[in-house]
Amino acid sequence: MASAAEQLAASINFSAFSKATELKNRIWFTLGALVIYRLGTYIPIPGIDPAVLHDIFARNAGGILGMFDMFSGGALGRMTIFALNIMPYISASIIIQLLTAVSPTLEALKKEGESGRKKLNQYTRYGTVLLAAVQAYGIAVGIEGMRAGAETAVLNPGLGFCLVTMVTLTAGTVFLMWLGEQITARGIGNGISLIIMAGIVANLPHALASTLELGRTGAISAPLIIGLIAVSVLVVAFIVYMERAQRRILVQYPKRQVGNKMFGGDASHLPLKINTSGVIPPIFASSLLLLPATIANFQTNNPHLSWFSNITAYLAHGRPLYMLLYVSLIVFFCFFYTAIVFNLTETADNLRKYGGFIPGIRPGKNTADYLDYVLTRLTVVGAAYLAAVCILPEFLISQYSVPFYFGGTSLLIVVSVTMDTVAQIHSHLLAHQYEGLIKKAKLRGRRG
To answer: First and final CA of the chain: distance in angstroms?
Structure first.
């Protein structure tokens, strides 16, 4: 027999959505915030020659700049006020997570509850400003050295341009960080993730139109385009299945007697996701592999680095060495990041503290060892899944010369964020239904 929550979830329909005024307001607020973000990706920083900059980014589309430009929705290629996007905040969050695992002070803050979480969030904001300022300075210096033939990308290079660029880009990142927090608090949640997804999806219509145009002119066969669409649908379905998959470990709580009554004896589950590390491994792996290609493109006129260009030729998209290193780095970062974010000893101690135990496993160290045994095998499957999704586009490029592909990293982000957003909307609808039931119960009680 279905539980009350499951019955209530099944009863949710469009009429329930139409009555959820608060949810509609949250959705409209989220859409308005994303429109503001997209408008900001078209406001350029002062002192840039857009024609020269476009030519430079076209030549470096296959490097790390191309990947960051994809995440920013084209803002980096246009060098706008949101060129850094929200990536400094993501980097600061990852750094704080890593430091929490090695710093006793930060680990103690994490265990303090809400107050500790607020302090960690504040440290993340400070780190975001620092990283954004450093990256903005690097971009300002890098742009001053960019050339397309005899023309430079900066109209008036110098200290003034560096200062204006640093202030503008840092302020843009801080504004996006604030906007993401507002979407989380007043919208439908996942503000930072929605901003990243909006940047990725923004370029999708243009890419699809370009691919269809190649099919119309005969550059790509129609069966290949149809096959590509079919493969994309299957990959999305596979990602949804794997992201929802989890290993549920049974946790039993003993019975206890209070007076003449017995309490406890309940059973629950400890869910372990197959992909615990999320999209971090593909992002890290792509960044490391694309960095040599980016350096080589900026040093094309340096005769002393000709050997470096030869190495990067073997690391081009679709080459066997690139795919081998890509898979290896994804697997490495899967295990590394999972070990950082999932503290097995702390989980085992919490179970013992609240009287929970895994049937057949002694509490304490034995529980931690068992969880490590299960999590290691889940991570093997998760790493294989991430590697398969991310390597498929590279295989299509090398074998069939497909000009357009929705890369594995971007596809993972879009599908994961979409699933989380749907779950947030569903939870708001459930809360609205529960509020309606509570109000009806109170009215009946008054009448009685």
So the answer is: 30
User: For the domain 205-448, what is the CATH code?
Assistant: 1.10.3370.10
CB 139 within 8 A of CB 83: yes
Separation of alpha carbons 293 and 64, rounded Å? 8
User: Does 107 score more than 70 pLDDT?
Assistant: yes
pLDDT band at 3 (very low <50, low <70, confident <90, very high): very low
Tell me if 364 sits within 8 A of 352, measured CB to CB.
Answer: yes
Kindly report, residue by residue over 359-398, the tens digit of the pLDDT: 888 888 888 899 999 999 999 999 999 999 888 877 777 7
Name the residue ranges covered by the structural domains of the chain: 25-202, 205-448
> Nearest-5° angle of CA 139, CA 140, CA 144?
110
Instruction: Please give the full DSSP string across 234-274, using - where no structure is assigned.
Output: HHHHHHHHHHH-EEEEEEE--EEEETTEEEE--EEEEEEES
What is the distance between the alpha carbons of residues 94 and 354, in angstroms, rounded to a whole number?
Answer: 30
pTM over 0.90: no
Per-residue pLDDT tens digits for 24-65: 888 899 999 999 999 998 888 888 877 777 777 776 665 566
Q: Which residues contact 100 (CB under 8 A, 6 or more apart)?
A: 106, 107, 109, 110, 120
Give which of 19, 27, 28, 30 is closest to 425, Cα–Cα: 27
Is residue 104 a contact partner of residue 90, using CB atoms and an 8 Å limit? Answer: no
- DSSP class of residue 157 equals -
Q: Which CATH superfamily groups domain 25-202? A: SecY subunit domain (1.10.3370.10)
Q: What is the DSSP string of 58-93?
A: HHTTTSHHHHHHHHTTTHHHHTBTTTTTTHHHHHHH
- Residue 361 tokens, joined: 């496993």
Query: How big is the CA angle at 119 (ends 118 and 125), to the nearest 5 degrees?
Result: 90
